[in-house]
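Intended use. Records like the one below are meant for learning the mapping from a protein sequence to its folded structure. Do not use them to infer anything beyond what is encoded.
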Amino acid sequence: MSLAQAEGAAVQEAPGGLGRDAWRRLRRDPVAIAGAALVVAFVAVALLAPWLAPYPPDKPVGQVTPTSIPGPSAEHWFGLDDLGRDEFSRVLWGARWSLVIGVVSLLLGLAGGTLLGLLAGAFGGWVDGAVMRLVDMMLSIPGLLFAIGVAAMLGAGLDAVMIAIAAVNVPVFARLLRGQMLAQSRSDYVLAATAVGVPRRWIVLGHVLPNSLTPVIVQGTLTLATAIVEAAGLAFLGLSGNDPSIPEWGRMLADTQRYLASAPLLAVFPGLAIVFAALGFTLLGESLREALDPKYRR
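Structure written out for the chain above:
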């Protein structure tokens, strides 16, 4: 076995050991267990919404008036909204829309950030400088204002919301991956592989990039939490379109503003759903960070 092969084998074994150690830590961490339970519940509700919801989310099932909106009852657990639709069914279906928006925006942001980070970390020099100046300009704009600007430019709609949230996260992933790749490029196994003549392209794609992705994956878990909150915020501002049949949590909050005095619970239920979904991904992401990064281990 050559020196490069030996170094490659050592690199391949390290993630497995790190993964087993992280799994042991996560199993013993009550914060990770609580976060995972919330995430599993959120995903289960999103996937099973058509079977869990007792009523269609877009059809009226009761009579309401502007001054009299029925509250929770045995028939309608969360009451009815301003159009007579079952609020419990709409909250359940809202989990599906929130999951779709969060996952799609995460994948788009991760793809763009990985591409920029890979270019900067692999080529260095003027490519690194140009990419990092672009990243710095994007990060200089507050995230919510950046998302509002992108969504307004693209036009109101869920597609615009997902692209806007992804655009906010691209520089975060790019800077994180670039920093990890620069740190990995100074590792002993990279120096050994370079010394024995392994092509740089194989070193970058076969070793440096895979060993730099762990912090990016952890950041992706945290990004799902912020994506759900940002999607709700953009929908609350009216940037997710005007289709009343889509039960998105942020839009549900926006629709209840006129009825806070007569039916305040209409804002409580989707608000709590946003809080618990974001809390689950945040707790799980922070626990993953502590388990995988020695600097954060308790």
